[in-house]
Amino acid sequence: MKRILITGGAGFIGSHLCERLLKEGNEVICLDNYFTGSKSNIVHLLENPYFELIRHDVTHPYFVEVDEIYNLACPASPVHYQYNSIKTIKTSVMGAINMLGLAKRIKARILQASTSEVYGDPLEHPQPESYWGNVNPIGVRSCYDEGKRCAESLFLNYHRQNNVDIKIVRIFNTYGPRMHPNDGRVVSNFIVQALKGESITIFGDGSQTRSFQYVDDLLEGMIRMMKSKKSFTGPVNLGNPNEFSMIQLANEIIDITGSKSTIKYLPLPEDDPSQRQPDISLAEKELNNWQPVIQLRKGLEKTVTYFDKLLTKEL
Ligand SMILES: NC(=O)c1ccc[n+]([C@@H]2O[C@H](COP(=O)([O-])OP(=O)(O)OC[C@H]3O[C@@H](n4cnc5c(N)ncnc54)[C@H](O)[C@@H]3O)[C@@H](O)[C@H]2O)c1
């Protein structure tokens, strides 16, 4: 049994990670300030004596004895990370410093949830980890992109200078139950609009593509990364390389929900990348042939079931 700290544990990905690591027989400490996360995401775990919930903000130091740290605390969707952009930078940068300081002191292994946003609007396609990215350092998304890039730099510097045992995963678009219903992310947006019978809003002409990874595939990759050999620090891409256009996604969701919604086209927001797709060959090589296994249709069905319950107040 390991004792594991998960920052951002009450969020979408964090809550699934808490659940999975408890199921595997670990002790889990979930730390969150509830900015975008919520107690309802983890309330079902509170009866488990091996689960602890701490209200704390990662921009302040926190001390605890653990074997592993998963650092997920950070709002992940543009509406939330732009709401208080300075705080987003602080969360990424000071959060990383505080958690790396803790890992150094207690000699814990620490994994950073980085993002495909470090590639910005990529000029190389698909993106391998060796690609340095095309990020606008002063654009409205930079609080998130540059915050995450700085966090990666901090991780590598703590590793090189202080031999901290680090792991970095670059997460591509992930979806599933417990996504925030109003965070403007495309999958949750489309599903909520379809279930409410509202128009499905597509930004741009809908031909831009995204790859969508179901949350369980991501968890498998993150846990394999945490268990990987010490010399493999990453960064490693974790995403589903299957690309779908926004129009395809909208049609799939209309089909699953049986909705009468129609599609409405709106102008593209600033700095919206036109294409992003992971090259996952490094993950396959280093993480025991890791590959996403859940097909979009199956993952969407599970997510629609969750949002349907949420909207009809069964959750
Ligand atoms: N969901 C994705 O597609 C995606 C893609 C790339 C990277 N990521 C990264 O994965 C991590 C989790 O993302 P998510 O989708 O679950 O988002 P989320 O917003 O649901 O979860 C983030 C959690 O961090 C908490 N948090 C935010 N600021 C905090 C602070 N200062 N102190 C303590 N807690 C804080 C929030 O309350 C929330 O519970 C994030 O670091 C995100 O950048 C997610």
UniProtKB/TrEMBL annotation:
Its cofactor is: NAD(+)
So which domain of life are we looking at?
Bacteria
Q: How does it sit in the membrane?
A: Single-pass type II membrane protein
Biological process according to GO: D-xylose metabolic process; UDP-D-xylose biosynthetic process
UniProt xrefs under InterPro entries:
NAD(P)-bd_dom (IPR016040), NAD(P)-bd_dom_sf (IPR036291), UXS-like (IPR044516)
Key words of the record: Cytoplasm, Decarboxylase, Golgi apparatus, Lyase, Membrane, NAD, Signal-anchor, Transmembrane, Transmembrane helix
Q: Which GO terms describe its cellular component?
A: cytoplasm
> What is the protein named?
UDP-glucuronate decarboxylase
Tell me which species this is from.
Answer: Natronoflexus pectinivorans
